[in-house]
Amino acid sequence: MRKVLNKVILFALVFGIIITIFPKANAEELNNDSTENEVLNDAIQNLKFYSSFNYQTLTQDKLNKLTSDFYLPVEYFGVTISYIVDSEYLSVSEETEIILLRQGTSTIEKEVLKVTVTNLPNIIKGEQEFLIQATLTYLDDSITYNYQGFITPVIPDDFFGGAIYTLVRYAKMFLEGAGLTLLISLVGTVLGFILALFLATAKIIAPTPQDKILSKSLKIFFNKLSSIYITVFRGTPMIVQASFFWYGFGLFGNALLCGLFVVSLNTAAYIAEIIRGSVNAIDKGQTEGSLALGLSYSQTFIFVIFPQAIKNSMPAIGNEFVINIKDTAVLSVIGIFELFNQTKKITSLHYRQLEAYAIVALIYLILTYSITSILKVIEKRMGMKPLELTSSN
Fold it and tell me: What is the pTM of this model?
């Protein structure tokens, strides 16, 4: 019985020792693995690349717009790092070098590999992706992590190369600006034409002896009001009008709507004078003939004189549309990103004004020439005779 009891005690003692020793060993092994993983993950999250120009840290945004050489650290707090760079535009040096990095008021030495940008893609190819495969090793554990970026084309030094670069790189901005310019010009001309019909009518219709006092007073009032309106809007620059309504009143709370409003009012003043001149150019015999046929003065004006006057003035109104395409450039003063303001924004991105403004001048020329050609075809088919009454915007 004693022998059996001794065997049980011995078995329990040995079993207890095994349970006590081996779980601790396993826990230590897991703890070591966990520590190594934490160190490696920390290195991945905090690993920094450095610009060769000023040793500043390259953020992901800068890696996505890479244009110059940079450095890769080969060690991070006990973690050794090796790299494989996958790009035809980059090469990694085989030997390390030491750079000095500023930390607060002191400097530290950092052992790095230099990555050289061997060449840059042209603007036609556009941005080119590159991949940096970093293998991080700590004690007996290692992990691989990929860093991605893009090599960005750089504007050439010569004029034609810079112009092609600017045109291709910022084509979307130029198109958006041109589209907005055409929209403002077209809508402003159409609304201005509608308003001009009322202004021209108010200025043309004079009081007659047959008019009653109220009718006569209204005609005089609207005639003076129309004259004042035309004088003010023809006598002040559109850029001043835009600033007045936008910065003075904050009209509509929307710069685009305010710009359309200003272009419409300004255009109406010029088109009103065009229509008035066209009405005065019609032979008076048509008025006399209409009155002799029994038409009233109003009927003669609406059905006989006005249609002819509008038809004859269409070439000059088309000319106003072409002028508005150019004059909308002044709306940049109130922050509308039409064609000219988009170009100003582009020049601020790479400080090459000559190429950008040469391109925008060419775009304006294409727009005005195209619209003029279309208007000439329309005039020819409708048998319109051009009436040369130009704007002085």
Answer: 0.76
